[in-house]
Design brief:
Blueprint (H helix, E strand, L loop, with lengths): L1 E9 L2 E8 L2 E5 L1 E5 L10 H6 L5 E4 H6 L3 H6 L3 H5 L5 E4 L2 H6 L4 E3 L4 E4 L6 E4 L1 H11 L3 E3 L11 H21 L6 E5 L5 H12 L5 E4 L8 H11 L9 E3 L5 H9 L4 E4 L1 H7 L2 E4 L2 E4 L19 H5 L2 H9 L3 H27 L3 H12 L3
Parallel strand pairs: 4-5, 4-14, 5-6, 6-10, 10-11, 11-12, 12-13, 13-14
Antiparallel strand pairs: 1-2, 2-3, 7-8, 8-9, 15-16
Amino acid sequence: MIKFTLKNKSRKARTGILELKHGIVETPTFMTVGTYGSVKSLANSDLLECEAQIILCNAYHLMLRPEHDVVLKAGGLHKFMNWSKPILTDSGGYQVFSLSRQTRVSRNGVEFKSPLNGNKIFMTPEKSIETQINLGSDIMMIFDECTPYTATRDEVKKSMELSLYWAELSKKANNTTMPLFGIVQGGMHNDLREISLNELTKHNFDGYALGGLSVGEPSDIRNDIVEHIGCKLPEGKPRYLMGVGKPIDIIYAVREGIDMFDCVIPTRNARNGQLFTNLGNLNIRNKKYESDFTPIDKTCPCFTCKNYSRAYIRHLDRCNDILAGRLMSIHNVYFYQEFMRKIRLSIQENTLDALIENIEQNYIHE
């Protein structure tokens, strides 16, 4: 089941309510990434305390390990990982790009070489949808292909046309009422993006995503593409920008009408000592924090900031204590959820421009 209701608009930016089988999601929203069915180092209780409303898991990786039939026997991914809120599953399409040296792409699907044992795995649109159905996703994604920033126009066009064919097969393979999103491809070419979108809308997907970005392109090119195509995605359905996660890029995309985001940045950066604050980024590994007994962010009420100092977290990090990664991940995950709440409030109060100016001051050079 899926129901999307628009609530407030401020020019192209909008807030909404996304009703899914396992709960309600307020948009714009940021989905914390739990690739293998967990957000690294965090318990579900940590995510709930950070007010995460929805997480993202990866169908390709879960198909390999523990294998989707194991998850099916457990009663679905929600029961397997004891997570009661919504889950969006990525189809495995991004792995066609990220694992390109180990793949062979044909019209029928993609041959992968398993990173676990070297076995050959053939992923088709039908197999991707079957996997996601067995996982019990609240939102499934079509199987697609994205191209690197350096791809030629001819290569992008060929890939986009293949993704459209796979989108049709993905749609036909979904013999359930589970929501399925289409993914707009077309690389760095706005005209190809429009062709992709026009063809996808013929299949009446439950939502529409912009894929094929964050593949090495400069941020100004990415932002131009989002500005051009974002507001052209169907008005009454969720709009999802895949894989984009820097605060400045998120808020620019919200301004263009995007509702949903995901990225590994909050947790991956945390494990490497990079923290987000209301005054910009903070690198906990800098020596100046060795005797700094203040919180990561004095204005932050997250568990980490309420209980631990920069000096202590830096000490844990230098000792390679896994608690450091957990505490920093809690803070970054909370920061992103609070950031999205501020965005929603600014749209409601028509103060988005002021919030953008604040983010530009603190993050424009990050």
